[in-house]
């Protein structure tokens, strides 16, 4: 039987643009992103832009690291449980192979059907475990993206920014000056905000 396999692989990173406001031409309509929540027209020449390395923000976000570790521990527990069940099943198959010659045809067929049912149940159990881990990962990413979205909205307002871009290799931004990189500032701010929130929750 196959075991659970790799529990928590390298987590992918999806490029995101969080706050945007774009005015094209004198007669064009002003488009604003939902994240910005700002209907004020902005001239391209006055556009204040910053960017973050999204993967760095995610991987250095304390909340993400803590929850990823919890998922990894859960995966190890699942793998151990599945391995124990698989070993038990393999032993039962081996015992059947050793005693099959002493069984009647009906007994042999009944045992084979029983083992096939157990094997299907074991595969279903494995698939359910993997689906649960995948769901946990998806939920974690949704929570992290939501927190980044919320924080960057506040960060943009506090720093008078009209746009914060997501800089990833091969993404939509091929060049940007280092002076526009606010990754470290965002990481520090998010971790500080998370720590305060966590400390407040623990005191209750």
Automatic annotation (TrEMBL):
Molecular function, one GO term: unfolded protein binding
Name the record gives this protein: OmpH family outer membrane protein
Signal peptide segment: 1-19
Q: Name the species this protein comes from.
A: Litoribacter ruber
Record keywords, A-Z? Signal
Q: Of which family is this protein a member? A: Belongs to the Skp family.
Looking up PANTHER family in the UniProt record yields: CHAPERONE PROTEIN SKP (PTHR35089)
Which is one Gene Ontology cellular component term of this protein?
Answer: cytosol
What is a biological process (GO) this protein takes part in?
Answer: protein stabilization
The domain of life for this entry's organism is Bacteria
């Amino acid at each position: 039987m196959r075991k659970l396999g790799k529990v928590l692989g390298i987590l992918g990173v999806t490029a995101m643009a969080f706050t945007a406001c774009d005015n094209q031409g004198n007669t064009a309509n002003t488009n604003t992103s939902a994240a910005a929540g700002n209907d004020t027209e902005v001239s391209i020449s006055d556009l204040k832009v910053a960017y973050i390395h999204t993967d760095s923000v995610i991987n250095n976000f304390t909340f993400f690291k803590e929850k990823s570790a919890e998922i990894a521990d859960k995966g190890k527990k699942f793998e151990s449980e599945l391995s124990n069940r698989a070993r038990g099943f393999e032993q039962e198959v081996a015992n059947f192979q050793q005693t099959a010659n002493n069984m009647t045809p009906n007994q042999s067929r009944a045992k084979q059907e029983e083992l096939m049912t157990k094997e299907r149940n074991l595969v279903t159990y494995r698939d359910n475990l993997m689906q649960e881990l995948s769901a946990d990962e998806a939920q974690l990413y949704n929570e992290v993206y939501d927190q980044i979205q919320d924080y960057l909205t506040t960060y943009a307002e506090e720093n008078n920014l009209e746009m914060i871009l997501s800089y990833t290799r091969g993404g939509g931004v091929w060049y940007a000056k280092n002076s526009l990189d606010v990754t470290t500032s965002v990481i520090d701010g998010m971790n500080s905000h998370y720590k305060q929130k966590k400390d407040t929750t623990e005191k209750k």
